[in-house]
Specification:
Layout (H helix, E strand, L loop, with lengths): L2 H20 L9 H4 L5 H6 L2 H17 L2 E3 L6 E3 L10 H8 L19
Antiparallel strand pairs: 1-2
The structure holds zinc ion (ZN).
Length: 116
């Protein structure tokens, strides 16, 4: 998998989470106790669909800024924001770690980043 396709795979995972959160109808009287009486109500309240949407949108913005860019004079990719070492940078690896258990997780995103 190339850096571009690994990046596209990761963006697709975040977009799928965002799409999933957006289809949830949030009632005006959202109450975790009403919907999830047997689980930690405060946790559910914190991670409402609105919160998931905000998290995913922020992650997509970060992934756009930290997308792979090809070196002009050699093979490989770098991050135009971090500009240290090859892509993926530590920012992308942190976002990718959330999806490590999903099918198709790219090898490129498993790299251990020593500059963290
Ligand atoms: Zn970066």
């Amino acid at each position: 998998m190339t850096a571009d396709s690994a990046h596209a795979w990761l963006v697709a995972q975040v977009q799928a989470d965002l799409d999933g959160a957006r289809v949830v109808e949030i009632p005006d009287d959202w109450s975790s106790q009403r919907w999830f009486a047997d689980v930690d109500a405060e946790f559910i309240e914190t991670w409402s669909p609105a919160r998931v949407i905000a998290e995913c949108e922020a992650k997509l913005e970060r992934l756009e800024r930290h997308r792979p860019r090809e070196y002009a004079l050699s093979d490989g990719y770098y991050c135009g924001v971090c500009q240290r070492g090859p892509w993926p940078c530590a920012e992308v690896l942190s976002d990718a770690a959330v999806y490590a258990d999903r099918d198709g997780f790219p090898e490129e995103l498993k790299k251990f980043h020593t500059s963290m």
